Amino acid sequence: MNVNEQEGPQDHTGDGAQVSTGTSTGTTGDAAGLPDAAIPELVIISGMSGAGRSTAAKCLEDLGWFVVDNLPPALIPTMVELGARSQGNVARIAVVVDVRGRRFFDNLRESLADLEAKHVTRRIVFLESSDEALVRRFESVRRPHPLQGDGRIVDGIDAERELLRELRGDADLVIDTSSLNVHELRAKMDAQFAGEEEPELRATVMSFGFKYGLPVDADLVVDMRFLPNPHWVPELRPFTGLNEEVSAYVFNQPGAKEFIDRYSELLQLIAAGYRREGKRYVTIAVGCTGGKHRSVATSEKLAARLASQGVETVVVHRDMGRE
């Protein structure tokens, strides 16, 4: 089931919103113009039409966030200021925006600059999906793409992707929903936002097969094809990298254990830089030919090493089982 089959590609969140009574993790107001009350934590949800914006928003709503759907970008700073005046009753705000015109995008850029000037901590969650998946979802509900006009669905997708290019580059978290159903997308959102306390850094380690294409939401890509392929060992071929014999075969190869040690050290350096820059999420894509043996075994080992270093880690095996 596609992420939008229950909601349609228009990405509306529905009625009502819950108000969190938790404590804001943001800064307090200053001379920039906001009151001294706690500034709400702000998340901006955007991305491709049909990629699951409303599912992501509904998940935050269920977690107690105050969710506003399709708020004009120019009003985002006003919404944050109202939340700051609520004496803690609105501690976490999620705003769903889409970019359907150049002026709309300009307003969003101005609002983000305004929030930065007022020292408001904000995060951008961007929902991505492949053209094939988006076309399939729009066709399944028999509705046009908002930007296709008199053209085809793919024309609307191309236009929207171009408008969103800069925003996607600024996103703190990119989630590719091409192969996710509603429940899997909610699980990803829960993993990022359900905790009472924000960890310093969260990592997703994703195995994949190069023959199926690079993950579009990868921040870092690792190529494990420098190791011998267990596929060519008849007794190992039917198994995956989760199998102990396959994992032992992979890490008994020259350079395999050394790679884990040295790459883990490199990730410590990168993670420190991410923390300084305020980046809270990183997706590490580990690839081999088919995403079944070497990448799976390496992802498991690398995730365990990151967890031992205090990084909250989720492991995803994107292509395991596709063969």
How would you briefly describe this protein structure?
This protein has helices spanning 53-62, 76-84, 102-117, 131-141, 153-170, 182-193, 244-251, 256-276, 294-308, and strands at 41-47, 66-69, 92-96, 122-128, 173-176, 202-209, 220-223, 281-288, 312-317. With 323 residues, it is an alpha/beta fold. The strands form two sheets. The chain has a five-stranded parallel beta sheet with strand order 2-3-1-4-5, with helices on both faces. A four-stranded parallel beta sheet has the order 7-8-6-9, covered by helices on one side.
* Strand arrangement in the largest pleated sheet: 2-3-1-4-5
Q: Report the portion of residues in β strands.
A: 15-25%
- Poorly predicted residue ranges: 1-32
Count up the helices: 9
Briefly note the structural class of the backbone: alpha/beta
- Could you tell me the mean pLDDT? 82
Major sheet? 5 strands, parallel
What sort of overall outline do the alpha carbons produce when their principal axes are compared? globular
Radius of gyration: 21 Å
- Helix share of residues? 25-40%
End-to-end distance, in Å? 20 Å
What is the number of strand segments? 9
Helix-strand pattern, N to C? EHEHEHEHHEHEEHHEHE
